[in-house]
Amino acid sequence: MKLLVLATLLGLSSAQFDPHMKDGRTSLVHLFEWRWADIAEECERYLAPNGYGGVQISPPSEHIVLTNPWQPWWQRYQPISYNLCSRSGNENELRDMITRCNNVGVNIYVDAVINHMCGAGGGEGKHSSCGSYFNANTKDFPSVPYSAWDFNDGKCHTGSGEIENYNDIYQVRDCRLVSLLDLALEKDYVRGKVAEYMNTLIDMGVAGFRVDACKHMWPGDLSAVFRRLNNLNTKWFSSGSRPFIVQEVIDLGGEPITASEYTGLGRVTEFKYGAKLGTVIRKWSGEKLSYLVNWGEGWGMMASGKALVFVDNHDNQRGHGAGGASIVTFWDSRLYKIAVGLMLAHPYGVTRVMSSFRWDRNIVNGQDENDWMGPPSYGDGTTKPVPINPDSTCADGWVCEHRWRQIRNMVIFRNVVNGEPLSNWWDNGSNQVAFGRGSREIVVTKSSKTKPGTYCDVISGDKQGSSCTGKQVQVGGDGYAYFNISNSEEDPFIAIHADSKL
Ligand code: QV4
Ligand code: CA
C-alpha cells in the first residue's frame, strides 16, 4: 500500500520536468518579441513541418509602455496587471495562436513575470499596454488588484530598498531587483493571484512556463504557487499532465543562492552551459573542443534531467543578466552555428534555440549603448510583422536563427537520435572531435564510425528526395568515414543521420 502511494507521488512530481512535446520532438525556440499572429503562422508553416516542439513566447501580461528610452524590449518585464494584452497582441490573438500551434503539435511556453510589477519610478497614470490605470508611487495596481500591502518593502532591510549584495539571500529575495516593485509571494492572496493568472493560460492550452527571476523568489513560495496550478488542458495533453516549469536562476557559481535549491520544483536554466561553451568555441583560456569529452555534468553542471540549455538568451546576447563576453550570438554567425550544432547534437538537457531581432549595436567601452532597443517596429512603437523572403529567411530585422539551415537540420537531427546515448567519441587531443548518438548517427569535425552507405551532410545541404544539395559522405564497410573539413570553411563540421542516408 505504502509503495503504491510512493509510486503515484513520484509520477506526479516528475511531470513538471517534462516539456510534453509531441511526436518525438525535443527542442523549443524562443521567438523573442514576436507578435502572436506571426507565431501562429510560424507554427503552421515552419515549426511543425521542421520538427520544433514548442515556442517560448515573450510575457503576455499587461506591461508598462515607456517613452524614455522609447519602448525598450524590457518594458515587458514590468507588469501592470495580468490582463492578456501586450506588445505582441491581444487576448483573442493569444488564444488563436495557442490553439493553432497546439493543433499542429507545437507547444506554447509562457514567460511568466511574477516576482515584481513595474519599476518604483514608473509613475502614476502612465501608459500601459491594455490602458489600465496604475500608480507605482502608491503601489496601486487596481486591475489585479494589488495594493501596497502586497509588496515586500517592509521585509527588505537595505538602505536603498534595492538588492545591494548578492551574498545576502534575504536581500536577493525580499528587496527590489533594479527598482522593480517586489511582490510579497508569501501572502496567500498574492500566491492566489499569480496562480490564477497562470491557470488562465493553462486552461487556454499552454504547456508550461519559463518563470522569470526565480533567484529573487523563495523556493517555498514558488512551490506553493506551482502546487496550485491546474493540469494541462486535456484537449491537447493527456490527462494528469503537469505544466512544464523552467525556472530562471542564473548560477555561475560564487553566490550563496544556487540552482540546486530550485531543481526539486522544475527545470532550471543552466547558465554555465552557454558561458563555458562560448569559451571553448572561441578557444579562450586554452580551452579545446576535445575537453568536451565529459560535457554536461562532468563540467559542474546540474543533472541533465533538470537542465534547460541554450547558447545565448535574450539577456546575455546584449550584455544583460550574466554570462559575460564569452557568450556566442548570431552576430558571430560562424561560431554560433558550431555552438548551436554542438548543443543540439549532444544529449545533455532540454534545448532552447534563440530567435532574435537585429538592433543598432553600439559598443562603447565594452557596453552596448543600444542594449535597450526593442523589436523592429513602426514609429508609434507597434511591433512589425515577420515577413518571409523567397529563400525562407526573414526580413525587416528579424534574424530567425531557427530558420538557418544548419540549426534547423540539427533540430531534426536531435529528434532522430532522441533517447540515444553519446557514443564513439573521438578527438585528436585538440580542436577536432567526432561523436555518435547510439549506434546510429554522427556529428563530426573529422572521422567517426557508423553504418555503411552514402549520407547527405545536413550542415552543408539538404537531402531532397534521393539527392543531396550538400556534401556526400561515404561510410565504408568497416563503419568508418574519411573526409576533410578545412578550418577556413564557413561551417567546419558535418552531421549525418539515419534519415539523411541516400
Ligand atoms: C534602473 C536602475 C536601478 C534604479 C532604477 C530607478 O538600474 O538601479 O533603481 O533605474 O528607477 C530596466 C532597466 C533598469 C531600471 C529598471 C527599472 O534596464 O536600468 O532600473 O528597468 O526601471 C529586464 C532587463 C532589465 C530591466 C528589466 C525591467 O534586463 O534591464 O530593467 O527587464 O524592465 C539578474 C536577475 C535575473 C534577470 C537578469 C537581467 O537575477 O533574473 O538580472 N533576468 C530576468 C529577465 C530579464 C528581466 C528581469 C529578469 C526582470 O530575463 O530580461 O530584466 O524581470 O541576473
Ligand atoms: Ca522578490
From TrEMBL:
Which superkingdom heads the taxonomic lineage of this protein's source? Eukaryota
EC numbers listed for it are 3.2.1.1
GO terms for MF: alpha-amylase activity; metal ion binding
Give cofactor(s), names only: Ca(2+); chloride
**Statement: the UniProt record of this protein carries the keyword Hydrolase:** yes
- Entry's transmembrane regions: none
| Glycosyl hydrolase family 13 catalytic domain ranges (all copies) | 26-414
Q: Decide whether keyword Zinc-finger is in the record.
A: no
Q: Which example biological process does GO assign this protein?
A: carbohydrate metabolic process
Q: Which reaction does it catalyse?
A: Endohydrolysis of (1->4)-alpha-D-glucosidic linkages in polysaccharides containing three or more (1->4)-alpha-linked D-glucose units
- Domain Alpha-amylase C-terminal, residue spans: 423-501
Q: Which UniProt keywords apply?
A: Calcium, Carbohydrate metabolism, Chloride, Glycosidase, Hydrolase, Metal-binding, Signal
UniProt xrefs under SUPFAM superfamilies: (Trans)glycosidases, Glycosyl hydrolase domain
- UniProt signal peptide: 1-15
> By its UniProt entry, which InterPro entries does this protein fall under?
A-amylase/branching_C, A-amylase_C, Alpha_amylase, GH, GH13_cat_dom, Glyco_hydro_b
Family statement? Belongs to the glycosyl hydrolase 13 family.
Q: What is this protein called?
A: Alpha-amylase
Its taxonomic path starts at: Eukaryota, Metazoa, Chordata, Craniata, Vertebrata
